[in-house]
Amino acid sequence: MSLLAERLKRIKPSPTIAINTKANDLKRAGNDVVSLAAGEPDFDTPTHVVDAAIDAMRRGETKYPPPAGIPELREAIASKFKRDNNLEYSIDEVCVTVGGKQVIFNAMMATLSPGDEVIIPAPYWVSYTDIVLLCEGEPIIVNCGLAENFKITPEKLEAAITPKTKWFFLNSPSNPTGAAYSAADYKALAEVLEKHPHISIFVDDVYEHIVYDGFNFVTFAEVAPQLKERTLTLNACSKGYSMTGWRVGFAGGPVELIKKMNMVQSQACTGTSIISQWAAVAALEGDQSFLKEWVQTFQKRRDICVSMLNQTNGLECPTPEGAFYVYPCIAGCLGKQTPAGKTIKTDEDFCNYILETEGVGIVHGAAFGLEPFFRLSYAAATDVVQDCCARIQRACAALI
Ligand SMILES: Cc1ncc(COP(=O)(O)O)c(C=O)c1O
Q: Which of 106, 234, 239 to mutate to test the pocket of ligand 1 (most atoms within 8 A of CB)?
């Protein structure tokens, strides 16, 4: 008898972590390698946030946290939803989790039974499908390509719905494409969902603060208030406040669902580190002005990537509205040969070629459910991003 559970056979290790590991191994072996595979800002956590954590520790706030989160943070989250998203939540309608990822885990664990379907537009963030699979649900993948700017259309959503559909996932701005939904996009999807009251909507806003060219960020429940009681809105301190290592995520949603998610969390890990929770209070309630500067820096890097990759043989790079990723299409490189005589048959071949010849770690589109593309994260120093794009240009020019 195997020690391992059957459900574990349904999931795979994170491909983004695998690329990072391969890049780091090559680096350790003395190669000139840069990884643009990871999804975390390269900025330091703001000083006032770090200070709040130190103060909390000195006050003795070092004990078990309440599973639902400390009241001060739940208040700060409710205020944040009101301030940024025009959403009214009581503190019983919000929860605090160990990073945004655990919102997904708690929600799926609390709601999915074997065979329940979850509609996930592709390309998607890699963890969506694996968490659904781990919780014994069935991901229903809907391909959303370049022609639709990587966004699901009402027609495609309607076609994917069955009596078994439990959740519909939305992520804007998106990982891996940076594409973002407008109020009009959301309203059109809401019209479909209104006809299907058995479906709950999961909305991932973790890149909310990182939008460009004056893009007007909106969240789904804000533009479809009639569906707020069926919507779970996920957010986190990780990306917007450069707090990936602090592990603070949060969500707003219907009180019964939040209660059950808290129950899952209380048995899984008790709760989010109380020190991190006090840091999150400072992040959400403190000065927000640094965000503008960070976004300007990201936008400069996005513009470099889009411009350089669009001048690269065989690539087509759409301009993302947000997040810190570009998702160029490599269709023009397929079938070509590398100088070593290997044919590029897939986007994975392409990414291996770029890593092995030019030392740039990027993630193949198949990992996010839509080929033939790659994801490049420009959350790295601007000159590094520019140098990596030049290396990709060189590698593509060498293909025949
Ligand atoms: C779309 C998306 N949602 C959620 C998360 C989870 O973030 P956290 O680090 O807070 O768990 C990520 C992290 O990469 C992400 O890209």
A: 239
Which amino acids bring their CB within 6 angstroms of ligand 1? Answer: 39, 99-101, 125, 171, 175, 204, 206, 236, 238, 244, 249
Is it true that 6-44+290-397 and 58-285 share their CATH fold?
no
Burial class for 13, CB neighbours closer than 10 Å (0-12, 13-18, 19+): exposed
With 90 as the cut, is the pLDDT of residue 15 above it?
A: no
Radius of gyration of the CA atoms of the chain, in A: 21
pLDDT tens across 218-253, in order?
999 999 999 999 999 999 999 999 999 999 999 999
Q: Which of 104, 175, 325 has the most ligand 1 atoms within 8 A of CB, as the residue to mutate?
A: 175
Instruction: Give the CATH number of domain 58-285.
Output: 3.40.640.10
**Alpha-carbon span 366 to 374, nearest angstrom:** 8
Name the maximum alpha-carbon separation found in the chain: 64
- Tell me the CATH number for domain 6-44+290-397: 3.90.1150.10
pTM assigned to the model: 0.96
Q: How far is the CA of 29 from the centre of ligand 1 (A)?
A: 30
